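The step that takes the researchers longest sounds almost clerical: writing a folded protein down as plain text. Below is the pair of lines this work produces for a single protein:

——
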Amino acid sequence: MPKQNQRYAIAAGHQKTLEVAENILLDGGNAVDAAIAAYMAAFVTEPCMASAGGGAFALVGPKGKDVRMYDFFCQTPQTKSRIEHPEYLPITVDFGETQEVYYVGMGSIAVPGSVAGIFALHTQYGSMPMPTLAEQAIEYAKKGVVVDAFQAIDLSLLKEIFKTSKRGEEIFYQEGRVKREGDTIQISHLADFLYNLSKEGRDFFYKGEIARTVVRDMQQRGGYLSMEDFENYRVNISDPLRFPFGGMEVFTTGYPSLGGALMNIYLAHIHPKDNKILSFDHKVDAGIHCDQLFKHPERISSALKAVNPTAEDILHGPISPQGTSHISIMDGEGNAIGLTFTIGEGSGYFIPDTDVHLNNMLGEPSLVPNGPHTWRENVRLMSMMCPTLLRSSDVGRVVLGSGGASRIPYMIAQVVEQLAHGNTLEESISAPRVHVEHQVIQIEPGLSWLEHKSKWKGYDIHRWDNHSLFFGGVHAVRRKHAIQEAVGDFRRHGVGKVF
């Protein structure tokens, strides 16, 4: 049981995900225990974002110890075997104001890292047995979880992917249409998978019958993964990228995340010199600077070195996909973790008898910008995911992260900038945001601005009528002395709780 007067803070993308973390903390677990349990629960509560077949980044700040980065994102196959007809199916996803084409099927699947990451975190920081941490996720998978408003939006976006497999339709369709808000998602085989996984460990997934089943289906249906790909997957543990901003120490993800580097560059470009909130112009200028860099990723490493000479070189490469969520947790002892996770859009392939939906990272245009099947062999795919930790005497200690694909680092950075000016966590997350990408300046309602067409020549300006999930979903927790805050971003129906 928790000690008297201890207080905890959680922010997440779904109420049920948060409740799992809360229960673990109340039962005496630490922040990492809670994050592991919540992540497994998200396989059911946030199935468009989370899966044992996906990947993630975690930033861990143990009490009194150095902050560490855990990279368990997806890996390309060791060899690109010659496949006459790879299963690589185009799917158009309609986002309303824009449409994007993704590829699914066996030829779109990279080596998943989620399972390895969970066990790596547990080995280093876990205080409760893994079967205990899996209990609530198993219960959700058996009994089902009611679809909320945000998950209904995601299911609708990805409905054509679920239709590519019989099992996908069985789980996510009802009476001939994709499930809606108020319907129940039940993922029955996942319950048995999580039970066995929690008992047997990571090798149950990477070295046993499950991996062999996937490889057999790869060979029969046109995919690239081999047993060696599963057996040789490793979690990378390293120091985070670190830099100062507004009197704070900022810790975030380094390579293979480009997100942390771009956040560092963006914030350096708008570094506050007084206590005034920076103008719209400053934020747009910083966004244009990063947008230009993004078009030439080979320049990002030198740009980072210019503002942070101690940073490691960034090896440029493709960037991670949509379909991302985040969990931030602080426990009563002062341990903290930020965990950002994704499966892309999902491949449509569910491992038989497990209901584990594998990723489609090799089918993401942003990850293979030179066209289908042009990925490099045996490399960790790059990402914009960047869970972040802040600390200073004025701001206290903050853990935050976001979904939102290529927009992730800039959405987090704008919250960091608001915090640097003394705003509360609620005010900082609610503040309107701006984003610059692909020659377009995107503006949320509420920003004061002037249309400097001559200054921003070549850039279109798009003013949004409403706040949107386009501008990320920054879920964050904060502790400053005796005051704690936990805020889930309303843009993605996030939830926060201090208890």
